[in-house]
Amino acid sequence: MSGNDVIVLNAILEQRRDEIAKTIKEDDFFEIFTFEQVLKNYDLSYEELESGKMGSGDDGGIDGFFLFINDELVDEDFNVDEIKKNPRMYLCLIQSKQSASFSEIAMDKIISTAFEIFDLSKSADDIKNRYNSLLVKKIQQFKSIYVNLAVKHPQLTVKFFYASKGNNQDVHQKVVAKSSNLIDIVTSRFAGSDCSVEFIGARQLLDAARTEKTYTLQLRFLENYISRGEDNYIILSKITDYCDFVSDEHGNLRRYVFESNVRDYQGEVEVNKDIRKTLEVNDDLDFWYLNNGVTILASHASIAGKTITLDDIQIVNGLQTTTTIYNYLAENKSKWREEGRGILVRIIVTKDPEARDRIIKATNNQTAIPTASLRATDRIQRDIEEYLVQYGWFYDRRKNYYKNLGKPSDRIVSIPYMAQSVMSILLKEPDNARARPSSLIKHNHDYKRVFNEEYGLNLYLTCAEIMKRIEIFLKDVSESLQDYVQFRFHLGMMVVFELLKKQNYTVAEVATLRGTILTNEALLDVFEKLVKLIDNYRKYNIGTLDKISKSRDLVEELINQDKLF
Predict the structure, then answer these.
(1) Where are the domains of the chain?
(2) How confident is the model over 161-181, as pLDDT tens digits?
(3) Is-contact 96 113, C-beta < 8 A?
(4) How would you write 418-437 as a 3-class SS string?
(5) Which of 76, 29, 77, 26 shows the shortest CA–CA distance to 53?
(6) Closest Cα to residue 407, out of 47, 24, 30, 20?
(7) Which of 168, 202, 163, 162 has its CA nearest to residue 182?
(8) What is the model's pTM?
(9) Residue 49 CA: distances (Å) to CA of 44, 78, 197, 302, 528
């Protein structure tokens, strides 16, 4: 059976790579594919999956490194200060090999690296000569966050995944025995932590790949519904039925149905504590008396008996309420049968994207949230999306919308990535783009500098084209240059310098570069110039490459180079 599994898995890999990732090498695609299956419940974008990839050399047996705090992926500018008490830390480490078995040597490499990862006394200087700069940065970020969160009593879970095309029922005993060593390394250094090791073979990868998101769901409700037509409904549902509605077949929360919800789950903030209290105190006051309920968007709805079937659902208001209910019921499974309280659910049926955006913005505008969180509904964001699609590019203002449609990964551009591209190329701030990927447009001032209707839509397409072409080029640079890949946004700025033969240019001049053919030879020439300038800068400035990539001083030197051309 395992032989058939491998044949089918290879066919799926070949088809998917041909459809969505022609520019990615086979081994690299297998790694990304593995990451996606292991982390399927987190619904990560291609950019997020790539962010955890450790490169091809000196990776210490770690191909994927992903850290989550309260189920949210930690990125470059993660803010520890925003985390409340008792945060959940989940560190996922993945080794992904196309071999037909599970190797003892591979496990030895992971064990050796684990000693470095989980020894808080080891600094970046202690390990920088053993691993590539990206892995060193990830390790140090994990350590720094854990130490800073120590006073908030983090609950640490570490999972090692070893994926191959082998049969996980035939793992050699010596390899299995190494699992205990890994677990001991973690639990002996982090008291109270939870650690596990899982071997994933061809069968498990196949099963995960075949598991698809379900956007057509059924919700049971109590008594009669209220409706003024076929485009709106108000229902009262038992909180246990609602929890079933938002959970998948494995009992996990369907995070993907909250894609349009502009607020992340805020953890133990006052509003969620109050919701929790109303659940814990089961008195004469029903839950829906004390809470606003949730709002659901759908493209179609039909009712049979006391069940409503909804297509293309998005829960656009109620993330805090839903997550708090889910967590409460997960901890109190024994109370499900006796639980009879209800939640108010408002359902709006519409296929009009502009109407959906207005509803999302309106239903999320009633509490204090960051203005930037609502940006996806702005007119300019819709305009960019509609403009790019005409040229075969896909602007993912709704996370993973185009990924779910099977569009090519190298033609999908997220809002944060577009902001980084424009910030680097037009505004000449690659240091900001590198250091603040998620908070780059958090403030109105920065947002308006990047997304300005006066620039013209062609500017956004041009910046996306240039940066995505650079991403493809950087996947194949020699191992000696791998540590400089983190200067991708600096390279974007330098390429435009080279193309326009000037450092001071206008929006209109940048826009003229759309469709410019950038050969590997031309990009390598600019990249090698950039590396020389960086190395020269390092002679007089102390710091890691990661730190230097976020330095404004380096950017000023690049801009002011007299002999650049």
Answers:
(1) 2-210, 217-369, 374-559
(2) 999 999 999 999 999 999 999
(3) no
(4) HHHHHHHHCCCCHHHHHHCC
(5) 29
(6) 20
(7) 162
(8) 0.85
(9) 6, 17, 20, 37, 27
